[in-house]
Amino acid sequence: MKKKVETEKNELVEEFFRRNDPKDIKSPNDMYKAWKEFFAPAFQQLLDAEMEAKLGYSKNERAEVENYRNGYYPERTVHTEMGEIPVKVPRDRQGTIESDMVPKYSRTINGFDEKIIAMYSLGLSDKDIKEQIDEIFGCKLTADMISSITDKIIPEIQEWQKRRLDPIYPIVFIDATHFHVRDNGQIVKKAAYVVLAIDAEGQKKVLHIAIGENESSKYWMGVLTDLKNRGVQDILILCADGLTGLPEAISAIYPKTEFQTCIVHKIRNSLKYVPYKDKKELAADLKTVYKAPTEEIGYTNLLGIHEKWEKKYPNATQSWINDWDNISVFFKFSGELRKIMYTTNAIESLNSIYKRVNRNRPVFPTDMSLLKVLYLATVRTEKKWTFMQENWDLILSQFRIQYEGRI
What we know:
This protein has about 400 residues and is an alpha/beta fold. It has helices spanning about 1-20, 30-55, 110-120, 125-135, 145-150, 155-160, 215-230, 245-255, 265-270, 275-290, 295-310, 315-320, 325, 335-345, 345-360, 365-380, 390-400; strands at about 70, 75-80, 85, 90, 170-185, 185-200, 205-210, 235-240, 260, 365.
């Protein structure tokens, strides 16, 4: 069939230039306009050629076969990159042959859907996509059609959510980023919880995305149990901000996993209690804690800072003392690994990509519409993650010593 259709394509190109003098085509735009007028009859000819190839004999041949042509299905308008065109899809007697170029019930030609999904992945609303398609291709799509096209990726998302994972991840980050979603006629703020890992090869992978659940030990137990059921037997270090119930869930599902509080979030939380005139000085003081060469020196510096600021801003440093066991895990490792652990730059950069999507679409009509956009943005981003973490061999050596027998 492929050879037959390719032959038809070559004949159509020759026919195009028989109808259009190359001297009259002086720019790509001239070519586009000329081809647009030629496209509808040319595409109809390709549909006929496709049917011939699938039946195994041409239209004017006689053949001893059980199945044969049976006219055309009713004419319908389909949306293409050349605009809207009328087509009549050939029909066979047995009704068993389906066109690959215009599938049954489809109102778009293959390849057109992918362009709509690509626009959707950038966070454009259905209305924005409708306007863009109308302006660029001259096609009148409805919001329902656009939604139906993007819904085609839902099974793909469901498979992605169930895919098997690696048995061990050295570092896992969990964070939440917030979006406005329409829910029961009201616009509410919902969290998108993202689980990002660095695998044993030093590559970043998004393991899980969920929308809108309330934080609790029970919720996080569900998330971690799902990871375990999908094959994750061990996590060496899990880094996160103060997500309610997460430390307790980790202890229950992955009791050997060490929990590292995100230092960047910790600093932000401390500085929000402090007026601008003292922010810079307190930030410099806190730097002597997390940049200290050892845990002992870091904790000693913290106690001194707490004594210095306690009377003016008691809440700014007390939480560091209360949470020291979760803050100080990174002191076990060298600077290369400390930086990865305490800054959570990996998931912060991912969240910034999600936020850029949010700028294009301030309100999502449903949880699923948000999940579709985040999934597509994730797939697009992961394709760019081609390099392992810097100094990963050195970091892996430290893991093997610190967590002997686990990696």
